[in-house]
Amino acid sequence: MSRIGRMPVIVPEGVDVKIKGSFVQVKGPKGELEHTFPKDMKISLDDRVVTVNRPSDEGTHRALHGMTRALINNMIVGVSTGFEKILEVNGVGYRAEVENGNLVLYVGYSHPVVVEPPEGISFEVDVRTRQIRVRGYDKQVVGQVAADVRKIRPPEPYKGKGIKYLDERIRRKAGKAGKV
Length: 180
Fold this sequence. Notes:
By secondary structure, this protein is an alpha+beta fold. The chain has helices at residues 59-80, 139-152, and strands at 9-10, 16-20, 23-27, 32-36, 42-46, 49-53, 83-90, 95-99, 102-106, 113-115, 121-126, 131-136, 162-165.
């Protein structure tokens, strides 16, 4: 039995879950998410607890069991508390700011790079620590937007300049052999 798949998902107060066969809709204070899961998985809601069951021990069913439960949990956590990714801007003259809800990056190009947030995503910049916070209720979209922002100027291995995740470690390379 899947260790993740068999765990129940507790629905907090203020979150409304509707299940119609394999279609799940979750509404909460942060937003609304919906997803259609594989028809083999049996999803049920009893007393504010969502459980996922699989029909057999087949390999594909075992894989779908844990994934389905994890996606439902992410939907419920997202609409109740939300998700956040933190990026850090490193480099002399590199900076970020928020203008009219858009993220504006000054990262060594001849022009500022403007990133427009998709629906449900917000940016917050701490100028003192040079951190960018990407917030939203859909975990997948938050991670994708953070990856797209990082891709604008990924960290380079010699000086470490660029945009990196807060917990990311950059493998540094030595400079020229003659330099001490």
